[in-house]
C-alpha cells in the first residue's frame, strides 16, 4: 500500500518536522552556556503533613519548569529569548542555547529574570499537560 503525497515534489510532510528545527543553526559556532532544568511544585500543609492531595515528588506532579542559565560577562540587554511550546531559544553575543523542553509549556505566560550578581538567567514556565484536570 503506497500513500500518495498531496504534492509529488515535497520530500516530507510538515508534520514530520519537529517543532524548533527552524532554530537549529549548525553553522553557529557560539558556545552553549551551562544550564540546569529544575521542576517546581506547589504544595501546602495537606500535601506535606497528610499526603491528602495524592501528589508525589515526581516531575509528573510538578506545575512549573525552571531553567537556570549561566551567562557570565553578559548584560541583560544583550539577551534574546524566544520560547515556543517545546523549545527555548536563547542567544547572546557569545552564547547560544537551543533547548528542547521535557514537557509542553505555556509559552505565552512564562517569567524570566536576570540575576546580575549570579550572572544567571532564570526562566520559569508553566507546564501544559492535556490531562491536568485529572491529575490536580
UniProtKB/TrEMBL annotation:
One of its GO terms (biological process) is flagellated sperm motility. GO terms for cellular component: cytoplasm. It comes from the Eukaryota. GO terms for molecular function: dynein intermediate chain binding; protein-folding chaperone binding. Transmembrane segments: none annotated. Residues 32-127 form the PIH1D1/2/3 CS-like domain. Belongs to the PIH1 family. This is PIHD3 protein. It comes from Psophia crepitans (common trumpeter). The lineage of its organism: Eukaryota, Metazoa, Chordata, Craniata, Vertebrata. The gene is Pih1d3.
